[in-house]
């Protein structure tokens, strides 16, 4: 599993051009901008993917952003990256009932992924953390443990929940479906999978669902930005640490005075910090590899 981080904020600055591992963009109406960065660390292959997409739907400018953390290979994460947002914006109720459209799109994408995986012997899966901007609404949806955090009024607030098998409601759902949760280095579904919701994972599909949890936030002056990241970031930086200005400092004080540029530098800075912390915290889990 690689590390991937995407930061989203409002800006009226022009876009910049970056190398494939990091970059940024701007909506057509100039209301929001985004930056991203990714790294495979010491792994020979990258199982994390991201997607950034800005579309016009029924006269609305819509922003779609996602982080997809693969396990058992990259196939599932790459499939979700390619298909989830297309399935969402073509849903007939995308504008009128966005939450139900998100749920339908997640489950339809999962169903189609499972069909496409029939010819493969290895069982691949993926988490997803997505942010959908429609007008003055922000909808965050997730399955798995890739997390979304907003900065509102200078405070970091988690707007998604990590789906872990030892959570009481998740464990009850799994056991009611005939599955079990056991300790194998960490709590795992069937002793295998360390997340309780995901795309794919055909052999555990009866217990590991792709039903997203969705949270809606109003976009106003107090909402400064949003971060989507895979667990390589959140295993090191707690929400409490995020509440200190050190973590978000580069966004609060952009250098040079261009917010979009600072978002990209911010994302790249997190990669550098993670590499240093990996050495400093050698007793902790490898940030770029699964347990």
- The H-level CATH homologous superfamily of the largest domain, spelled out, is PPM-type phosphatase domain
Count of extended strands:
15
CATH class of the largest domain: Alpha Beta
Q: First CA to last CA: what distance?
A: 10 Å
The arrangement of helices and strands along the chain is EEEEEHHEEEEEHEEEEEHHHH
Catalogue the unreliable spans.
10-20, 240-265, 281-291
Largest sheet: 7 strands, antiparallel
The CATH architecture assignment of the largest domain turns out to be 4-Layer Sandwich
CATH topology of the largest domain: the name is Phosphatase 2c, domain 1
> How many alpha or pi helices?
7
Number of domains: 2
**Global structural class:** alpha+beta
Radius of gyration, rounded?
A: 18 Å
Average of the residue pLDDT scores: 77
Helix content: 25-40%
Q: Beta fraction of the residues?
A: 25-35%
Looking at the structure, what is the overall shape?
A: globular
Structural notes for this entry:
Strands 4, 5, 6, 7, 8, 13 and 14 form a seven-stranded antiparallel β-sheet that branches. The chain has a six-stranded antiparallel β-sheet with strand order 2-3-1-15-9-10. Helix 1 packs antiparallel against helix 2 (98-116) and helix 6 runs antiparallel to helix 7 (259-280). The longest helix is centred in the last third of the chain and has 22 residues, at 259-280. Residues 10-20, 240-265 and 281-291 have low confidence and may be disordered. The protein is globular. It has helices at 75-89, 98-116, 168-176, 231-234, 239-242, 245-252, 259-280, and strands spanning 3-9, 22-26, 33-39, 48-57, 60-71, 125-126, 128-134, 137-143, 147-152, 155-158, 181-183, 187-189, 199-200, 213-218, 223-229. 28% of the residues lie in helices and 30% in strands. It has two domains: 3-163 and 198-280, 4-Layer Sandwich (Phosphatase 2c, domain 1); 164-196, no CATH class.
